[in-house]
Amino acid sequence: MRILFISHSFNSLTQRLFVELRARGHEVSIELDIADSVSEEAVAMFRPDLIVAPFLKRAVPASIWQNHVCLIVHPGIVGDRGPSALDWAILNREPVWGVTVLQANAEMDAGDIWATATFPMRVAMKSSLYRNEVTNAAVAAVLEAIGKFERDEWPIPLAEAGKIHGQMHGQLRPLLRQEQRRIDWQNDDTATVLAKIHGGDGFPGVLDSLFGTPCYLYDAHPVTAIALAATQGRAGDVVARRDEAVLRRTRDGGVWIGHTRRAPGADDLDKMLKLPVAVAFPAETAALPELPVSLQRPEEEWGELRYREEGAVGYLSFDFYNGAMSTAQCRRLREAVLQARKRPTRVLVLLGGDDFFSNGIHLNCIEAAAHRPDESAADESWHNINAMDDLALEILTATDQIAIAAMRGNAGAGGAFLALAADLVWAHEGVLLNPHYKNMGNLYGSEYWTYLLPRRVGAEQARAITQNRLPISAAQAAQQGLIDAAFGRDAGSFLREVKRRAQALAESDDYAARLAAKRERRAADEAAKPLQAYREEELARMRRNFYGFDPSYHVARYHFVHKMPHAWTPRHLALHR
Ligand code: COA
What we know:
Strand content: 15-25%
CATH superfamily of the largest domain: 2-enoyl-CoA Hydratase, Chain A, domain 1
Mean pLDDT: 96
Number of domains: 3
Shape: globular
Helix content: 40-55%
CATH class of the largest domain: Alpha Beta
Number of strands: 22
Bound molecules: coenzyme A
Strand order of the largest sheet: 2-1-3-4-5-6
Structural class: alpha/beta
Largest sheet: 6 strands, mixed
CATH architecture of the largest domain: Alpha-Beta Complex
């Protein structure tokens, strides 16, 4: 079928549906929801059999839904309506939630039901639930709806669907406002504080204050009794720091808060970026006592980096918020890789974060540097990409172990190439890769990609991947040889299988031969062209991106970090144009 997506942005859910439907042979074109007239024009040009709206912030115009079947993906159970579906579900601590595909009509979210899928809720940030459970449920429900549409079946009116789905029937809920998200530090227990911050993460956040400055809070994690015992203070007090987060006490415990965004009203726009707390409030955070943790520690003790060993396999995870990796984070991770390399293990598994493997250099931190005296976005970009390269180099040259990149979440731009620095790259079936830089203002990219990509897929395919700028599913990536294997339906089953395979590799009879082959290949590649040469060539291009006359990268980054609305749909997405 010809399927037109109308979507607020080409976000992860939209990308996932895009790759799933294309893999099933549908022709999918995309129009970003910019204005009714633009969507109408897209429909006229593409003449779709079906319209799907994976992620909308406003209603579909009547001129479209009256003439075409238009499927709306709503992140709520049957009967649930309103713009804050997941936020409410998290705040109300619903045990089960779902996604419903309904037909657009005159009333928002009240159309006939085509399909629905449910999932057990997890204590997690809204954005994490969205990228995992909601996205998987949306794929299942959209595929079911498309199947029905192709078989000429009809959707069920909401009133009847309610009877079929019994108690699992939602209701119309209004926009969740800041008054309802507000944390009462004296009376809310830790679970409530977490639910409130999780329910607003990544957007809009919970309006509160830090160090006497109004700001939104994000990226919260519970503290352990041991860490808490090392601090003193009352509920609401900010008492310690770790990584770039601060610890705030609650009535019955405490929460680590990793990210913040100053509230509007601040004197300039850069203060309204979402930033690590230590970057947003450097002096105030530095004055707090530090509660560092070792890489190997109990599971419940929060920290961005974690290392553990099982037999001859070392597992290093780096759970950076949004997968963005600042200069400081790259350097800390490089130190951790160096430590892991010194261990007497045979296999090193790089696990990335829970939600993202990596999304490359930290564009928000770079943007923030533009507004500090004696610093610039160009300089910070330069430091960050060099720190990324230093990190990639340690993975590439780890010749005493077999390195595996095991992607539990999506990877984009430099983060996708960082994974390719490992000997083996595995991902689960729901993972999306965006192994290209061009969307960020024609950024050339580094991370030794000019070495890593062609050696996996060949020069021609490498060119296609970087020029097409489209998301690639794990299955597709495995087919192309971009990664080595895609298995497991979700992160949980994937990790179990990763452990089994990594263990088997460490114990395999041909382990020594494999390691020897790796060393030989590295030496031969180095003799043919040293890694330093690839790096210098890439960085020469990056220098032009950062410091040259063409400001495209700086403009694109500014638009990205400030979430400027799209003015038009990129032509590589809008096939009809
Ligand atoms: N630096 C800072 N923040 C980043 C980031 C980066 N490199 N990559 C993603 N993010 C943030 C987004 O701003 C967003 O923030 P939010 O918490 O305010 O929502 C969040 O991560 C999720 O990103 P989003 O774009 O909504 O996720 P997605 O899964 O829909 O899309 C990407 C993933 C990778 C396609 C997209 O985030 C992207 O293009 N990122 C930039 C990659 C890049 O150019 N890196 C620099 C070159 S190495």
